[in-house]
Here is the input.
Amino acid sequence: MDFELTKTQKDIQKAVRDFCKGEFDKELALELEEKHEFPKKIWQKAGELGLIGVHFPEEYSGQGLGCMEAILVVEELCRNDSTIGSAIALSAFASEIIMHYGSEEQKKKYLPEVAEGRMLSAGAFTEPDHGSDITFMNTTAVKDGDHWVINGGKTFITNGGLAGFYSVLCQTDPDARPGYRGQSLILVEADRPGVGTTDVGRKMGIRMMATAEVTFKDVRVPLSNLIGKENKGFYQVLNFFDESRIQIAAQALGTAQGAYDRALAYVKQREQFGKKIAQFQATQHKLADMATKIELARLITYKAAWNYDQGRIDPKLTSMAKMFAARTAVEVADEAIQLLGGYGYMAEYEVERFYRDAKITEIYEGTKEIQKNTIASSLLGKLK
Here is the structure.
């Protein structure tokens, strides 16, 4: 059992750190968040440097690496800035669906665009009436000659309105029982007639990231836009979640570490009652608890990524990593604000933004309650 990162993995960490030092700026982050503006220039530079899609095959502009290397990138980005980092980390959201299940034509057309920072991708799964329940879809796709005709709506879609394409989960067999056996994934280009988007409005956190409602009104796409196998979309999405939830765990881990870094630096220089805050035992105990939680979150997140790279899909472990890392991010960011006191509440000191950004990791890609359901189901098996 080896807990040491490889030279390649350490080089990736350093490359991301150097990139962030050169491109991330606190004042720019405050400005972009206030404007609800995607960090386009930084994203494009990240793509040019090969920091997006490192787990894509080399023939599609990736580096041919694994989930472990991909989450190291996510962790470092979010550690340096929770908001800019999250926007860049999720710029390729759901592109893994194309990578794993798409046709050769789909891979060649879209993966290089995503990896090189020229196109955002999006997964359109969540619906207004169903939320975390994707076992039945109101969005339908009906065959009409050599086209699919898609009607319906999705909500809380990451990169919605900015993405170049959507991987849309549709009901293609309305008579299937249970309903999820009749779902398919279909690629819909953003510029197709009938595709509409509306921003969901001001959010608590991740304000640089576009989140939108996406509607499909008689949208026609070729039958060849089917991703993977017909009526297997539900299963393909579940498999995708087992990879993407590790990336969200890494987002949470980086956010937690970033909040901790800032709190640690502050207590080392701030004086109260004639001595550094770091000299008070109450402060030291908070730091010890925070560091321990982060280390535990890192261990389970890294293990989940390593396990995935061994070719094993373990929903229980993936959900444990996502649930624990997300809770850690919220708790550590909360304590970081407490350590900074009144300054922690101010935007200038960043930890309040890390706190707001942390909470989403407990919600998207399946709420913490959904993760507990997955874990419990794995532990109990089928009950008679």
Q: What stands out?
A: The first strand starts at residue 121 and ends at 124. The two ends are 38 Å apart (CA to CA).
